[in-house]
Design a protein that fits this description.
Elements lengths: L3 H13 L7 H10 L4 H7 L4 H9 L8 H15 L32 H4 L23 H6 L12 E4 L4 E3 L5 E3 L5 H10 L18 E4 L1 H6 L22 H8 L3 E2 L7 E9 L2 E9 L18 H14 L7 H12 L3 E5 L6 E5 L21 H6 L12 E3 L7 H5 L2 E7 L2 H6 L4 E2 L3 E5 L9 E6 L23 E5 H9 L8 E5 L2 E2 L3 H17 L8 H14 L1 H19 L26 H26 L5 E3 L2 E6 L30 E8 H9 L4 H6 L10
Parallel strand pairs: 1-4, 4-7
Antiparallel strand pairs: 1-2, 2-3, 5-6, 6-7, 8-9, 10-18, 11-19, 11-20, 12-17, 13-16, 14-15, 14-16, 18-19
């Protein structure tokens, strides 16, 4: 017979266990019986509505102290609203005893988990320190109704790992990860997790699984909670003698050149056709930039998984900053190689994939490069550079009319993903540049042209379409094809003096544009902003769309950052204080280091903006106060764009000018200020557009 000490020890162990919650269905019944909505319960428990939904369908469980508060609330409701046909709970009982579901057998293969989970079972309780290595835990009925699209990756593209070993995936999946070190985590991810994503192009590669670490998970794996140092956050990494780095190397894994930083890629050389690579992101090391992923790092792990999962499904599995992901997406949709049969041996070998940028980096023409580029430094080039940048222009205050000064408002219009719209059907060069003297201009040939456009007359109340600052050119300068073509479109003769042109061309960015456009439009639709709205309804929806679903609003911000960052990264400049002019920096080793493609996108976007500005003058007689990148500020009699945008008698928008809508290239209200405020800013030399937008419109050159 057991001794008194043994019995007391067993009882104490039970008392120290985390409280068991009633089954998910009972939680929902109790809440509904009390007449409380999920949103109100989320507010009371200081969490999100999605987390409450997950608790009520068995996808996840709350953690202390929220667990204890939730338990107390459910106990109170259980006493008030007993289940039909059952006796009311005795007042003395403080914890509802609910038997947890039987754990999955340890021998179950995670790859076969969908079949094993097809039998409905009660949701298991949150494990304690005596965690058992369970392959997966998912809502069975939901997964049975929605089988995985790719059987190789039944649990989606990524997971967010918390300190208790719970790995939160897409669609509410929660996996149990027994790893206690980074090496164990990599092995579990590759062999047991069922994470990953299929390739986006038949000649491409599958996406590596992504594991996002919370601060608690990072500490559990032996990593510091914060990565501190005097360098910029994105440049920080663990020293090579750190124990975790040593463990990784000892286990014969490798790290990429950027080392173990906020985004760490751990891999082994490909053996046969099997790729072994895991991407890690550490939240507490600022892996998710607040500008690109607003509020995401502070969300619950399940909600972070939802944000990143939607982005992965609609764009690409994140592989770094949104700028890095934007560039990786280009390559994933236009793989550099494809399988070709060698006529001599009959073997299949990698060959060039038509329409791609290939596998080798390509030096730009001297005027397309940056001043520190080896092409410029080694050749002593002094012939000038392309200056195809976004607008930063403000109208001279002396050109304001009395009528404009009496208008009470200055209204900012922002074009939805203007640079993405410019990438549509954009023909760019795929081969290296060839130098020509005195070439005849051809608007169909992408390249850089030395031409004098100072003779082109433009109304001074509009910015010049040929310069970022909107000032008239003073002599010959280098321009991208779209800029020169616009001068020809305006009816002026163009006579290039020189040209660096490309013979092989193609719409390289088309699939990139299509995927990001669909992601942007679909995410806006999730936030209630759809194409069938009237202009007034569209403005109202845009005003509140960020409050509809913070998670989807974060996805939308990340998509927009992917567009600008990806285009900017096509001309990534050298980073670090130790760089010396003329040295080759790491970005130059990429085939996607293509400043000429970046210039083509920006040139087309700026020309599109000027064309709309000129059409607005014809349709309404209105001239802009200022333009910053994709934002234009107009004087207005009212606080809404509806007060000055051109509409036909039928109520339909006039073609040619600015139009409202959720599609890339169409406009939305960016900000409203009083006219006197805007005039005062201009007199001080400030740009009202920059103050309305917060100064975030210029194309970043990536991270």
């Amino acid at each position: 017979m057991a001794s008194e000490e043994e019995l007391f020890a067993s009882v104490d162990a039970l008392l120290n266990e985390e409280p068991h919650l009633p089954p998910p269905a009972e939680r929902a019944r109790l809440r509904e019986a009390a007449g409380i909505t999920q949103a109100r319960l989320a507010t009371a428990l200081k969490t999100t509505t999605q987390s409450v939904k997950n608790w009520e369908n068995g996808r996840s469980e709350p953690k202390s102290p929220r667990l204890d508060a939730y338990q107390r609330l459910l106990n109170g409701w259980a006493a008030k609203y007993p289940a039909p046909g059952s006796a009311p709970a005795a007042p003395a009982v403080s914890v509802a005893a609910t038997a947890p579901a039987e754990p999955a057998p340890s021998g179950v293969d995670p790859a076969n988990a969908p079949q094993a989970a097809a039998v409905p079972t009660a949701a298991p309780s949150r494990p304690t320190a005596a965690r058992q290595a369970v392959a997966s835990r998912r809502p069975a009925a939901k997964k049975a109704a929605q089988p995985a699209a790719d059987p190789r990756f039944p649990h989606g593209p990524l997971a967010v790992l918390d300190g208790d070993g719970s790995a939160y995936g897409v669609d509410g999946i929660v996996l149990d990860c027994p790893a206690t070190s980074v090496v164990e985590l990599v092995e579990w991810t590759l062999h047991e997790s069922g994470l990953g994503a299929p390739r986006l192009h038949r000649n491409g590669k599958d996406s590596d699984p992504l594991i996002v670490l919370t601060a608690a998970a990072a500490v559990k794996l032996g990593l510091p909670e914060r990565l501190e140092g005097h360098e910029q956050r994105r440049s920080l990494r663990l020293p090579e003698d750190h124990p975790v780095v040593k463990q990784v190397v000892k286990a014969k894994w490798r790290l990429t050149q950027r080392g173990f930083g906020p985004w760490a890629r751990i891999y082994r050389k490909v053996q046969g056709r099997e790729r072994q690579c895991v991407q890690l992101a550490v939240l507490s090391w600022d892996a998710l930039d607040e500008r690109a992923w607003p509020g995401t790092a502070e969300m619950e792990p399940a909600d972070i998984a939802r944000v990143l999962g939607v982005y992965a499904q609609r764009v690409i599995t994140p592989r770094g900053s949104t700028a890095v992901s934007g560039l990786e997406l280009m390559t994933a949709l236009r793989p550099p190689t494809r399988a070709m049969q060698d006529p001599q041996t009959g073997n299949w070998v990698p060959g060039h994939n038509p329409g791609s940028l290939g596998t080798e980096p390509m030096d730009p023409a001297p005027p397309e490069a940056t001043p520190e580029h080896p092409v410029v430094v080694d050749s002593g080039w002094s012939g000038g550079f392309l200056n195809e940048e976004a607008y930063q222009w403000v109208r001279d205050v002396s050109l304001l009319t009395d009528e404009e000064c009496t208008l009470p408002y200055a209204v900012g219009l922002d074009l939805n993903t203007a640079f993405l719209a410019a990438a549509a059907r954009l023909v760019v060069g795929l081969s290296g540049p060839d130098h020509f003297h005195g070439p005849k201009f051809n608007p169909k040939i992408p390249g850089s042209w030395l031409v004098d456009l100072s003779h082109v007359e433009v109304d001074p109340r509009l910015p010049s379409p040929f310069t970022p600052d909107g000032l008239r050119p003073t002599g010959p300068a280098w321009y991208q094809t779209h800029t020169v073509a616009y001068a020809q479109e305006l009816g002026y003769n163009v006579a290039p003096l020189e040209g660096y042109l490309r013979r092989e061309t193609g719409a390289y960015l088309d699939p990139w544009h299509d995927r990001l456009k669909n992601a942007y439009v679909d995410t806006l639709a999730d936030l209630g902003v759809t194409r069938d709205l009237t202009d007034a309804e569209f403005l109202a929806s845009m005003e509140r769309h960020k409050d509809v679903d913070p998670a989807m609003a974060a996805v939308l911000a990340a998509i927009k950052a992917t567009v600008k960052g990806g285009i900017g990264k096509l001309r990534e400049r050298p980073q670090g204080k130790r760089y010396k002019e003329g040295e080759r920096w790491p970005a130059l080793q990429r085939p996607t280091w293509r400043p000429d493609i970046r210039a083509a996108v920006i040139s087309k976007a700026r020309v599109n903006m000027h064309r709309k500005l000129a059409n607005m003058v014809k349709l309404t007689g209105l001239y802009p106060l200022a333009v910053l990148s994709d934002c234009v500020v107009y004087p207005s009699p009212g606080a809404s764009p509806l007060d000055f945008l051109p509409y036909a008698a039928s109520g339909k928008p006039q073609p040619g000018g600015f139009r409202l809508g959720p599609t890339p290239g169409l406009a939305k209200l960016e900000g409203v200020q009083t006219m006197l405020w805007a005039v005062d800013l201009m007199e001080q030399g400030h740009n009202p557009a920059r103050h309305i937008k917060g100064g975030d419109a210029v194309l970043d050159e990536g991270e």
